[in-house]
Amino acid sequence: MEVRGLGESEEVAEAVVWLCSDAASYITGQTIAVDGGFAMPGFRGS
């Protein structure tokens, strides 16, 4: 995925809303990084 730089608070909020929805009801005990790919191995930024 393309990394566009620093994220907006709305982008993090969208992930939180999804996690609180029925669509994410099967997810348990996971760490989900909402960082635009920053923590991916090999990320260098621009």
From TrEMBL:
Pfam families attached to this UniProt entry: adh_short_C2 (PF13561)
Q: Which InterPro entries match?
A: NAD(P)-bd_dom_sf, Peroxisomal_t2-enoyl-CoA_red, SDR_fam
E.C. numbers: 1.3.1.38
UniProt subcellular location: Peroxisome
Q: Which reaction does it catalyse?
A: (2E)-decenoyl-CoA + NADPH + H(+) = decanoyl-CoA + NADP(+); (2E)-octenoyl-CoA + NADPH + H(+) = octanoyl-CoA + NADP(+); (2E)-tetradecenoyl-CoA + NADPH + H(+) = tetradecanoyl-CoA + NADP(+); (2E)-hexenoyl-CoA + NADPH + H(+) = hexanoyl-CoA + NADP(+)
Task: Name any one GO molecular function.
Answer: trans-2-enoyl-CoA reductase (NADPH) activity
Q: What is this protein called?
A: Peroxisomal trans-2-enoyl-CoA reductase
Q: Which organism is it from?
A: Tolypothrix bouteillei VB521301
